[in-house]
Amino acid sequence: MGEWTFIALLFIISLILPAVPIIAGRLLGPRKPNPLKNSTYECGVETVGDTWVQFKVQYYIFALVFLIFDIEVVFLYPWAVAYHQLPLFGVVAGIVFIVTLAEALIYAWRKGALEWV
Amino acid sequence: MQLPILESINLMAVLPVLIIAGWACVLLVFDLLIPRSRKHWTAWLALVGLLGAAVALFFQIGHFARLGSEAAFDGMVTVDGFSIFLQVVFVLTAIVGVLLALDYLPRHGIERGEYYVLLLFTTIGMMIMSMAADLIVVFVALELLSIPLYILSGFAGMRETSEEAALKYFLLGAFASSFLVYGIALTYGGTGTTRLTGIAQAVTSDALNLPLTTVGMGLLLVGLGFKVAAVPFHMWTPDVYQGAPTPVTAFMSVGAKAGGFAALIRVLVTAFPAIASEWGTLIAVIAGLTMLLGNIVAISQSNIKRMLAYSSIAHAGYILLAVAAAQRSENASFAIGAVVFYLLAYALTNLGAFTVAIAVERDDGTGTEIDDFAGLGKTRPWMALAMALFMLSLTGMPISGGLVGKVFVFQAALQAVPGDPLLLAVVIIGVLTSVVSAFYYLKVIMVMYMREGEGKAVLPLALKTVLAATAFGTLVLGIIPGPVFQMAQRAMLK
Fold it and tell me: Of A3, A42, B319, B370, which is least surrounded by CB within 10 A?
């Protein structure tokens, strides 16, 4: 049963942590509502029109492509460091990895993802 | 440090997966060269790749029937009869998935080569899922299965329902994946390994960390329960099945579910035999709830895709019942045989039913109400007959694979009753809900034959082929189930 206590404790603490500030705010804070305070909190200027509008997110594809190569670098560093003790299979596996990512780049390029519209 | 050498990688054992993976990568680039109006070339090329994998699987069947099982990638995956059997189901489902889309995509103006490439990728995920011998592989395969499906369900992007389906599936799926990863982490914390066999040893020998491992197992159940659409993790199913393009729905209602069950069985039976009575009870309760909810809510559905979605939830319940029966080790091989057989029968029947739904659906995505089936009995007698067969099979009526599957599932559960009396109650729920399910399945038959209507349907050659093949398969499984069931039972993992 000893181990279960820890899990139960973890569970209880994880409930208490977010609950305490919320309840404390309710109990301790002064309450002076006005229409402005009661309105939905939003940053910046007030929303104009419908929220379901389409807008261009030009950066996200660049971000995605960048992310692919970011991860490539992370994986290739240990590969390159251990290069002199890798068997042939390790080298081939690394090359397959690079080729796969290169393919992704070709795909993105041909699809026009790298063009700035 | 010992680095893996080529022999321990054992590429031959995973040859079908490699064929599809390599082909999909080639096809992705090749598709760029194919002009927009010729995208059916991509479809045919995808079929070639799948057929190549099917040939490789065919040669492997004999090989693994003799050898039993073989490890690959340093023990990260195990190829055995169980995985070969399921891989056959996945490759067949993928072939059907391509054939169903062949006319559907251009008709609906959503033809893109990526459909076929993504289909191949998700098939690889399912195939790896069936051979996973390590929790990390389970996770990677699950993501490989899921991510293409998220995109595919949003493939008819200009329809708001399809967009909604993709977004819901993605958000809830990512949420479920996080449960799975947390479960893997806790299991690793409790046992010190992610290898399924290693976990099994650690669970039996080390009682100290058992609570942690048990909680981990529970979280794994949540993650996989989401994939197979078991209650209470079924919320996404109706909206996603209804919103996604119908060929995608057909594909994922079969493939993703079978993939989830493959991993579920591998994880539970291989890694957690020591706490079998715990997960057995848990799964039995989930199975009962799933059957109840799926069957009862399906009654009030008027949309065929939504009805089949609830029916797929209900069938997940029946399969879970057999999974729960696998808790007794002397009974496990029969129970797993029942699961695999049921999955095959369900795959054939459900693909057939969705094929009819595709034929009836109109170009703008409407025509998916059950009322749209009115008059089909007169205008399309053969198609109506096939649909009637599928509906009877889903209900579990004689001379259909569905009946035999249910019989095996109930028999497996009854054999396990001495170990877990709760199963008896769940079997009773199963039988009763099967009777309930007759109401909404027979309603489709009634609408087709008894009600006057236009009975319009578009049935090109590809759909006809699928329809004939699935109807034939359903009948064969219903009339001579013996050989297939023996194969399914021998497919049992060691």
Answer: A42
Same structural domain for residues A31 and A74? no
> Chain B contact for A16, CB < 8 A?
no
Q: What angle do CA B282, B284, B285 make, to 5 degrees?
A: 70
Closest residue in chain B to residue A105, using alpha carbons only: B29
Rounded Cα distance between B155 and B28, Å, is 17
Tokens 């809900």: give the residue: B433
Tokens 């054999």 label which residue? B415
B5 to chain A nearest CA, in Å?
7
Query: Is B387 in contact with B320 (CB distance < 8 Å)?
Result: no
Which chain B residues are closer than 8 Å to A3 by Cβ?
A: 208-212
On chain A, the residues whose CB falls within 8 A of the CB of B9 are 89
Dist CA B466 CA B266 (whole Å): 31
Phi, psi of A82 (to 5 degrees): -90, 10
Q: Strand, helix or coil at B463?
A: helix
Q: Which amino acid is at B474?
A: T
Residue B71 DSSP SS3: strand
CA B414 to chain centre: 24
- pLDDT above 60: residue B2: no
- Is there a contact between B3 and A85 if contact means CB atoms under 8 Å apart? yes
* Angstroms from A33 CA to nearest CA on chain B: 35
Give the pLDDT confidence of B130-151 residue by residue, as tens digits.
999 999 999 999 999 999 999 9
Residue A71 in any domain: the answer is yes
CA atoms within 13 A on the CB side of A84: 1
Q: Is the peptide bond before B4 cis (omega within 30 degrees of 0)?
A: no
Indicate whether A53 belongs to any domain: no
pLDDT of residue A81 exceeding 70, the answer is yes
Beta bridge partners of residue B70, listed in sequence order:
B79
- DSSP labels for B340-353? HHHHHHHHHHHHHH
The owner of tokens 């026009």 is A112
Percent of chain A that is helix, strand, coil (3-state, to 5): 70, 0, 30
Whether A54 is covered by a domain: the verdict is: no
Alpha carbon dihedral B416, B422, B426, B432, in 10-degree steps, equals 110
Name residue B27's amino acid.
L
Centroid of chain to Cα B226? 12
A103 shares contact with chain B (CB less than 8 Å): yes
Average pLDDT, chain B: 90
Q: What is the dihedral of CA B342, B348, B350, B351, to 10 degrees?
A: 150
What are the pLDDT digits (tens) for B333-389? 889 999 999 999 999 999 999 999 999 998 888 888 998 999 898 899 999 999 999
Give the structural domain span for A86: 59-110
Rounded to whole angstroms, the maximal C-alpha distance in chain B is 74
Q: How many domains does chain A have?
A: 2
Residue A88 phi/psi, 5° resolution? -55, -40
Gyration radius from chain B CA atoms: 21
- Nearest-angstrom CA–CA distance, B377 and B391: 14
CB proximity list for B487: less than 8 A, separation 6 or greater: B81, B85
Same-domain check for residues A65 and A103: yes
User: Which residue's entry shows tokens 């806790």?
Assistant: B186
Q: Which residue of B has its CA nearest to A103?
A: B29
